[in-house]
Amino acid sequence: MTPSLLLVTTTYPPVVGGSEVEGQRVCAGLRQRGWRVSVLCLTGPQMPEAEAWEDSYGTPVKQLGRGWPGALRGYGYALGVAWEIWRRRGQYEVVYFLMTGLQLATGLPAARLCGKTIWMKFSGSNTIRPLTASGLGRLELRFLDWWARVVMVLNPAMAEEAKAAGLPAERLEWMPNPVDTARFAPLAPAERAALRERLGLRADTECIVFVGRMAPEKELPVLVRSFARVAAARPAAELVLIGDGPERAGLEAQVRELGLTGRVRFTGFMTEESVREWLRAADLFALLSSLEGFPVSLLEAMATGVPAVVSDIPANVQLIGQETGGLVTPLGDDAAVAAAMERLLSDAGLRARVCEAGRSLVEANYTQAKILDRYAELLGRR
Asked: Which of 9, 43, 62, 290 is deepest in the core (most CB within 10 A)?
């Protein structure tokens, strides 16, 4: 029998974030292995006009909540999830919930009523604990306790969150995000030089890149302050902030106040292909977040051979060890971050060692094939 899966996720590409990209890559990889896969997601301003379409990998997607007023759209989505799970009950065997939300309260009972295997993956740190603060959230946790075959988490801290919320330890599964190591790979020196020229980087520019949503948990003011220290000592250094979000206006004001105009570039939203180009051109990658699950952008940087400077949160340190993939710094410590950046920029031998170790770690553990093997093994437990 052909394995079949229905993915339920609040947001999905073209909305771009780590969880969205991860969901799309997993769906594409499973389809390449012969699975039948389709996606249900919430409608929104970035989504296509069509109610149903195929994503860039050919996965069928249907957006729910269309026609509902903005304040009620989430309710329309949650009701639509329950209806679609029931309506399609003969078309799939696994319902995979990727994100929290009201759709758990409606979708979990529907999936149980249809006799389907239920998987849940919490898509980020601090997504489980908030459920314990409301009656509805506690009900959703109870449903997961009763009916979920497996509950996936991204890092050890999330596993502790899940156990504290009452989810059984024996059903918790560490499920990291995958990266395509063929696409995200270093360039030969001549190709890299040509790419940097095309992106407007001088040969001597020391390019530091951040990729992600400009949200409070990314701690981007810390990154800008740290870069100001580096820029004062290294006239060729440039910071490139890739992404958009609610913090952008404040960051632009901070850059002006610190006299960094011309040294910090805001690119706005970029496609995966453009992100890949910037990573291949970069000298350093920075991720100083206070909250992450399993950062796809960091994984992509490591696969591309870019040394990283990261904060010492569980999501980052499961990927970056001292001199394996980059350097770890205390959360919120501008001086330590600047020192780590200067150390890596000044020492080509260190950069080469950490990059080689980081790429090897990714190839050994986080390739698309290895993560898909984990999903196939989960299916075998049904």
From this structure: 9
Domain boundaries, the chain: 4-177+367-379, 189-365
Tell me the pLDDT of the chain (382 aa) as tens digits: 789 999 999 999 988 788 898 999 999 999 999 999 999 999 988 899 999 999 999 999 999 999 999 889 999 999 999 999 999 999 999 999 999 999 999 999 999 999 999 999 998 888 999 999 999 999 999 999 999 999 999 988 899 999 999 999 999 999 999 999 999 999 999 999 999 999 999 999 999 999 999 999 999 999 999 999 999 999 999 999 999 999 999 999 999 999 999 999 999 989 889 999 999 999 999 999 999 999 999 999 999 999 999 999 999 999 998 788 999 999 999 999 999 999 999 999 999 999 999 999 999 999 999 999 999 999 877 5
* Residue 11: CA count within 13 A, CB half-sphere: 13
Q: Per CATH, is 189-365 categorized as 3.40.50.2000? A: yes
Same fold yes or no, 4-177+367-379 and 189-365:
yes
CATH 3.40.50.150 fits 4-177+367-379, yes or no: no
